[in-house]
Each structure stands twice: as C-alpha cells, then as structure tokens.
Amino acid sequence: MLPSWVLWKIIGLIGKSWAMLFAGAGYRVVLYDTVESQVTAALADIQQQLTKLEESQLLKGSLSSQQQFALISGTNDLAEAATDAIYVQENVPENLEIKKKVFQQLDELASEKTILASSTSCLVPSKFTAGLKHSSQCIVAHPINPPYYVPLVELMPAPYTSADVVQRAKAIHIECGQQPVVFRKEIEGFGINRLQYALLNECLRLVQDDVMSVEDIDKVMSYGLGHRYAFMGPLQTALLNAEGLPNYCDRYGETIVRVSETYGPTPTWKADDPVIREVQRQFDAVGLGVDQLPARRAWRDENLARLAKLKQE
C-alpha cells in the first residue's frame, strides 16, 4: 500500500470518482471542501458506491471496498490536506478567477515534489498557473465524466511544465487503471471537447434545419458511429474502411470536402435559442425531462461499467 497523499478540492461527481480511482490503486486520499457537510456527504456516498461496485464485481484494484474506503478521509482545512501531498487534483467550477485563486493557495502549500493538477475541461493551464513558484509542477488532468467508468485522462502541460511532472502524472494515472493522453502543446478545449463540440454543432444544425428528429440523430451515434468508436477512434475507423488512408482519400476525399462545405454557421448555444428549446421539448416528449435525468444517469453508468468490463476482457 502506497504511503502517498492525494488531495481533492471541492467535492462533486468528478472529485468522488477520482477519489475512488486513486484509493483503488492503494493511495491514501484526502477529500477537501470548504463546507464540512459536503465532506461528510461525499464520504458516505463513496462508501456506498464502493460497496455496490464490489457486489457487482466492478470494483477496480486488488483491495476490497472496505480497504479502499479506509484509505479515504476528509477535511475542510486546506493546509491539513495539502501538506506532504504528492499529487493534488483541483475540481472547482470552470471559472478562471476561481482557479487562479485556488492555485495561488496551493502554490503556498506545495512541496517541491507535489504535482498540481486541474480537472478543467477547457482552460489551458498557463491561464491560471503562470507566475507561481511551483508553475513547473502544474498540469491539466482532464477526466471524462464519469471517470470511474470512462478511463480517458487528457494531460496538458503548460509551456513551462517540467517533463518529469508530465511523466509522473502519466504513470500515476496508468497505475490507477486510466488511459492518459499527453498533449504536445496547449489548445483551448483539449481533444475530446473539440471533437465533441464539432459533433454537437452539427446535431443542432440538423435539428434547426428540420432534417432529423433528436431521437434519430442520437440513434445515428448510439447504433452507428458509437459501435465502432467504442473500440477505435475515427482515424482508425477510416483506415479500416479502405486499404490505408491514402486509398480512403481516393475513395471519399472529394465527398468529405463537398459535404463539409455545406455546414452552416456555429450555433450560439444560448439557453433561450429556439433550437435548444426544441431539442429539450423532444427529450421531454420521450420521458427525458429534468426529473428523469438521475435515473437515466444511473442507467448510463451501469452500461458504461459493463462496456468497460467487456473492453478489459
């Protein structure tokens, strides 16, 4: 069992999932939040989740659920949590000013060996870590929700992040059973969100132009592209659909360009846009209103867990 400390800042769905992953690898984990009741509630929820995972034989790591939970504690004292930590994972809201403030606080508490990581999903690390004493120890470690079932972690260093920190962060995530990818340079939105946003934009355009229903658009992904993408990415999918990528271009290149040139402008993604209201109306009509979402998330997580188990096999 490793004698290392890992910190989680602000406990939400992501923070709790991170905690379980690291405890599964044998790390001692300290949950931190400014509100004591949040810490207490998070610990109770984690204990319940670990027990259910063990019962369903989906628990990660070689330790029992009881042994993993024993590695997790909580505090509302940041200094107590961060002292001697080898790895800190910040999970505050996607707000640049809040992240700057948190990293300034962590900078004062970090040792020379502490990795300071952020769960940000879009902000490049240099925007909130520049000028810190320990800036070379800062990195983005962006998980995919829910990270316990979706193993990708996007590691994005700032231009000044040390190569050693990148490699140590990567090694820790591999040890926890995740699949880290490392960016060679900073870019807004990282990889998964840039790809996801391109897909979402075209989904809205298809609804806005009354080309397809919301249900049918989602079927295109879940019963079509998603089957292949669960096991290989779009580039390898293209590779296998022809005799190599040059041959794919010979077959489909002109079509790709012609269709791509018909894409409309980027949707505004404002809550009061007619297309957003129409998408929600269609979801409401098939029983996916706001009140039904918790049950649907549980269904999603159960199926993601089964898929993760299949891919391991």
UniProtKB/TrEMBL annotation:
The keyword Oxidoreductase applies. SUPFAM superfamilies: 6-phosphogluconate dehydrogenase C-terminal domain-like (SSF48179), NAD(P)-binding Rossmann-fold domains (SSF51735). Residues 189-242 form the 3-hydroxyacyl-CoA dehydrogenase C-terminal domain. InterPro entries: 3-OHacyl-CoA_DH_NAD-bd, 3HC_DH_C, 6-PGluconate_DH-like_C_sf, 6PGD_dom2, NAD(P)-bd_dom_sf. GO terms for molecular function: L-gulonate 3-dehydrogenase activity; NAD+ binding. GO terms for biological process: fatty acid metabolic process. Residues 12-185 form the 3-hydroxyacyl-CoA dehydrogenase NAD binding domain. Keywords: Oxidoreductase. The keyword Protein biosynthesis does not apply. It holds the Pfam family 3HCDH. Belongs to the 3-hydroxyacyl-CoA dehydrogenase family. This is CRYL1. The lineage of its organism: Eukaryota, Metazoa, Spiralia, Lophotrochozoa, Bryozoa.
